[in-house]
Amino acid sequence: MGMERTPQRHLGVRRSSARSARFATALVVAVIATTILISPSIAAAEGSLNFGVVVNGQSAITSSDARPAQLYPTRPAELRITVTNMQSSTLRIASVRFEGEVLNMPLFSYDSIVDLVVPSASSRSLTFPVSMNGVGSQATGLIIATVTLLGPSGAAVASQSLVTNVHGSLKSLYGLFGLAVLVLTVSSLSLALLAMARHRLPQNRWLRGVRFLIPGFGVGLVLTFTLSAFGIFAPGPGHWLSLMIVTSAAGLALGYLTPAPNEEEFDDYDDDVLLAQILVVDDDPLEADDQSRSTTDFETPTVAASGVSDSRATAAP
After folding, report:
1. Where is 97: in which H helix or E strand?
2. Do 23 and 58 fall into the same domain?
């Protein structure tokens, strides 16, 4: 009976692999779609407000990978904001939030109370320090930061993005997260290569492609974190998105073009299972027992009628 369930278990494993592949593909697509659709900044209403920011002497408009605003954990950052109110009513800014994030994941955030009042059709500027205590243990390298103006109710009024260079440690939360992604990527790629060496990859080309697409996506993340931490480029959508699309597509193509497992092994396996099923059906122990009993019952009178004398002693009459 155990042999008869083997094909069902084998089919169940294939179906489970297919479901896992579809889930992994949906997860990768969802991550990319979420990071594309969610904007990291909130733009001011067009024609109603002009907002400019300078961080440690570097303007947000002219900041870039080559010209980032320098942030140090041991000294406060000097922020200068300029707000031009073109609305018909007075604008009040209760606080300013200075935060940095990567792939829509927040790394650091600092709020400063300013209580800035900007009358209608006028402009106001304000310079204030922001304590950067703890930033070195949270981030390192080139980071996209955002300066957001918050109203009295806590709602965002306007925001401006800029490239910053955080002089932190590789042991920071950002560095450790990148290391964890590296370990997971190496493990996933090693398992895929081991399965290919043992001819255990799925027969379907697309399933093999998904098996390598996940490590490719991980390679894109690792490159994004590594290049950002070493000051090569800031992980903005223009960089990390194209990088992860290329590495994911390369992983998908690699898995799609890998040779299929040896089909003869699967054919031999199916033949063996079929042979086992035939043997189980033919060699039914109950039928064999019935046949042995029938043969014994049939041979007993034959021995008695054969005329062979019985050598056992008999009682005298």
Report:
1. strand 91-102
2. no
